[in-house]
Each structure stands twice: as C-alpha cells, then as structure tokens.
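Morning run. Coffee first, then this:
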Amino acid sequence: MAKVLQDIDFIEFLFETIAYFPRERRSRLIFIFLQYNKSFVDFQHLDIDSLPMAWSGSSVPVYQDLIDYLKSILRMLDSAQLLEHRAYVQQRIDAWERRKNLEKKQDFMGEDDF
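And here it is:
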C-alpha cells in the first residue's frame, strides 16, 4: 500500500472522488494517507476543501461545515513532521472564515454583490 500512496497522480485522482464522501470517512482516509506519505508537496495536491456541487440559501452553513471539517483535519496534524501541513490547513481555514464572514455581511445587507 505504501507504494500506491507515493503515486501522487493516482492519489490526486482518488481524492477527487473522496471529496464527496462523508466527512468522517474523508478524515480517516487523509489520516491513512499521512501515515504513509508525509510529503507536504503531495499533501497540497489533495482536494481537502471542496464544496458540495450545489445548495440553496445562504452559503454560511456550507462554509461552516467545511471549516469544521478542516479543523478536524487540523487535529491530526500534531507531529513535528506535519507542521507545514498544519500551517497550510490553518491558512485554508482562515480563507474560508473570511468567505463565511463576507457571506454573512451579504446576507445581512441583502445584496448579491458586496
């Protein structure tokens, strides 16, 4: 299995599909990946923060769900070998928090273009 997890093209392909699995299953698969491949460059290729294809209403709950999911990944990244990974995931969380806050403002103002 370790050899397969080093083939980042194949892993990228898998994670495009895994992105639509339930959160807990995605987290477990990321954990398994990191047990065998700690490369930060490879980790950056994983589709860890994709959104659902469609939703109705405000995107705030969708963004919050994604942020919660990314925070669950963050808890896995507690070793010294994964500090870069942790910083990367934290940057993704911060970016989604900014989007969520902008969406809240747009929802409050009732405007499509803020």
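The chain has a mean pLDDT of 87. Good start to the day.
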